[in-house]
Amino acid sequence: MEEHTQHSMDSTNEVEKKIKADDYKAKAKQDRHVEGRAQALQASVAAEIKPIIEKYGCAITTDIWTEDYHKTSFISSTIHYTDNGFGLVSRVLFAAPFEDGVSKTGENIRNLLFQKLCALGIDTSLLVGRAVFVTDRGANIIAALRGYTRLNCNAHILNVILSSACAPAVLAKTPELSELLTSAKKFSNIQVCRTA
Fold it and tell me: Are 79 and 105 in contact (CB under 8 A)?
């Protein structure tokens, strides 16, 4: 009986190893396919935006955030420009993680940002006078973009103001404001329902 049990366990282990090996091969093949498609898309976006930057200029929004689960920090950039019909075009250029243990200093942000832009074939020296970076007001991102045109993101500023003004501690001290916000929410819901 023990021999039969041991044989069954060995057979099960061999099957599991084969399944894991097959899964690994399939995942590696899928990863290569996705990576190839991403590189092709990246090349097409680079070919599209390089002449626009050189001829007309652009705006680039850049942000840094940390996701809560793994505490990984990311940087992303999106380019904005107008097409020939004056329609606004926005293209996400990249979203990239910071390596573990790398602090988000101005220098490290600048290095990663420009490394990713260079990977797209964008000569960062061309951005001086041709690109406007739009960011939050963090001292590190301001330092990273010193020497380039940079504007504060008004949407971010408004969000900070409203988040602070409508914080639970503030609303607890100002019942009039709390009541006004509650009424505004009700009114907003009524208007949405009537237009739907």
Answer: no
